[in-house]
């Protein structure tokens, strides 16, 4: 096996760089890589037969831990199956290290099986692609391999985080003899030290001056991990200085009576005079993508005079509202803590102890309260079991300090309309980098593998059945809770004006199937529950969320016509907000 020692050393280098978890999809060409990680005593390796699911499980693990997850697969079309997870990781800025086995390049286009051009297969959706040599006899080859892997892992964790691809051509023999053993020799570790950008004093003073000269200031948070420290400083800015802090459920901005979380409701159909009254003079944004169209449309149609966007790096200029005036390369928490401290001290020196006028904040809060009341009325009384009422009931009973994954399409939108309360301390995740339904279940499985907390995924039937290979690899983590909203085909197209008015709706847009998850749950050895009424759902949830030795799946059966009627009624009621 001495010719493959550099491959064995890759496993050792993963460990030295802090990577502890590897996802492997079986294959022959990838055998040297697989054996190298499988036999390493300090690596935890999980096998996923479906590469697409494996990629998303790795994504969920990295999301939960903040540490890169390594992925190994064989050559050919197997590599392409990783693409959906790779692009999601790229746009959601999640660190992954993707190791793809390959045939030596001289066999390209020679009618050899499982041979495609893999060198830059993920294109611009990885931070960088690397291609290792197929021959290791020369000392420079080993030096190159070690240097490359060091660089790739470091790059995956430099702002903005993201996936890197290492293509590994391998020659036969792939398998060691029975009397050969692997030697995990210490390899050279090259540390990449983290660096935080520092604003020049003059630039910082200019920002402070702009702040002090601005009357209506607003903070809007895109998709962002839960941060107690960041919420604490937002509390101070909003409570003491009257700054509206706007967020969505994927922003991890909770409902607390102070923050603004119901924008998708009250910004819908807003008249121009009201919108102009709400428009900020200075808008400060942070985080990744925003979820709802109404919020994005508002900021684009009524742009702020000044718009700062805060992000740790300046590799790309993010201008999603088409109003950006200043890109600030900084860590958001450090920026807002220093901003509050400096302005608070400056006002103290000036003897300015009077509270800022909170009129602007109160205007936003009034709209937010009206919207929350409308949503509550929509879901109270004799409300039937619908996807929306089910989501509200589920969110209200989530265990405190647990983790919530929201699948794309309608579940994440219903959850955003409902929100979670601050005292619950829920950490919310969703695949909003590309916003596809593929991999939502697998991502939650990956998260559950890296935490002891209860991980709940709320998912629609189309997304669930599309990704049920997430449950193929046993055992499914016991802390996983799957809540499946089954309306037999998904109904987001009924909520969109275009397809919802077409006679071809059911045939070409929806996906009716007639399936239930009972057999899938049995195959995966999950505890399976089902319900078809709101009262039964509420009664099942306490035991469902309780700790148990097995993962659980709760299938909620709803009617897509009732779902549609409820949402149409809600949209009709939206007009009343702006008439009060």
Question: Could you characterize the architecture of this molecule?
Answer:
With 580 residues, this protein is an alpha/beta fold. The chain has 3 domains: 2-169, Thiamin diphosphate (ThDP)-binding fold, Pyr/PP domains (Rossmann fold, 3-Layer(aba) Sandwich); 203-366, TPP-binding domain (Rossmann fold); 379-577, 3-Layer(aba) Sandwich (Rossmann fold). Helices cover 41% and strands 15% of the residues. It has 23 helices and 17 strands. It has helices spanning 5-16, 31-38, 51-65, 77-80, 83-92, 139-156, 201-212, 228-241, 263-266, 272-278, 293-301, 332-349, 359-378, 387-397, 410-418, 440-449, 461-466, 492-495, 497-500, 505-509, 518-523, 534-545, 560-577; strands at residues 21-24, 44-47, 69-73, 96-102, 129-131, 163-169, 217-221, 245-247, 282-286, 306-311, 326-329, 403-406, 427-430, 455-460, 480-486, 527-531, 552-557. The strands form 3 sheets. The chain has a 6-stranded parallel sheet, with helices on both faces. Strand 7, helix 8 (228-241) and strand 8 form a beta-alpha-beta unit. The longest helix is centred in the middle third of the chain and has 20 residues, at 359-378. The radius of gyration is 26 Å and the shape is globular. The termini are far apart. The model has no long low-confidence stretch (mean pLDDT 93).
